[in-house]
Amino acid sequence: MQVLIYSVILLGVMGFAAGLGLSIAAKKFEVKEDPRVEEIIKVLPGANCGMCGYPGCSAYAHAIVEKGASPDLCVPGKKAGVSDKIKSIMKEK
Ligand code: SF4
Asked: Which residues of 35-72 are buried (b: 16+ CB within 10 A; e: fewer)?
């Protein structure tokens, strides 16, 4: 019975230590992303068709913010005025 109690305590301590370590690592290695990327992803159609020349809407949003890609490349979003929305997001910040 005593072995069982020690085992449960040991596993609990190990679980707590692992959780604490992962929590600290997540904070330390956190990648801060420009909030404009997420805003642009929200206005894109989300079809992930690749017609903009990027592998998906998320990659296109990253390219606009990080590499200065043109905001006029999304073909499915043209009628909905996506490029104007992207331009206004890029001007905001
Ligand atoms: S063209 Fe538009 S809908 Fe298609 S992947 Fe690019 S951003 Fe997404």
From this structure: ebbebbeebbeeeeeeebebebbbebbbbbbeeebebe
Evaluate: CB of 75 within 6 angstroms of ligand 1.
yes
Contact 60 CB / ligand 1 (< 6 Å)? yes
Domain CATH code at residue 68: 1.10.15.40
Task: Tell me, yes or no, whether 40 and 77 share the same domain.
Answer: yes
Cβ of residue 77 lying under 6 Å from some atom of ligand 1: yes
Q: Contact at 8 Å (CB) between 34 and 65? A: yes
- Tens of pLDDT, residue by residue over 37-49, are 999 999 999 999 9
Q: How far is the C-alpha of 18 from the C-alpha of 14, rounded, in Å?
A: 6
Q: Which domain covers residue 12, as residue numbers? A: 1-30
Query: Into how many domains does the chain fold?
Result: 2
What predicted TM-score, i.e. pTM, was given to this entire model? 0.73
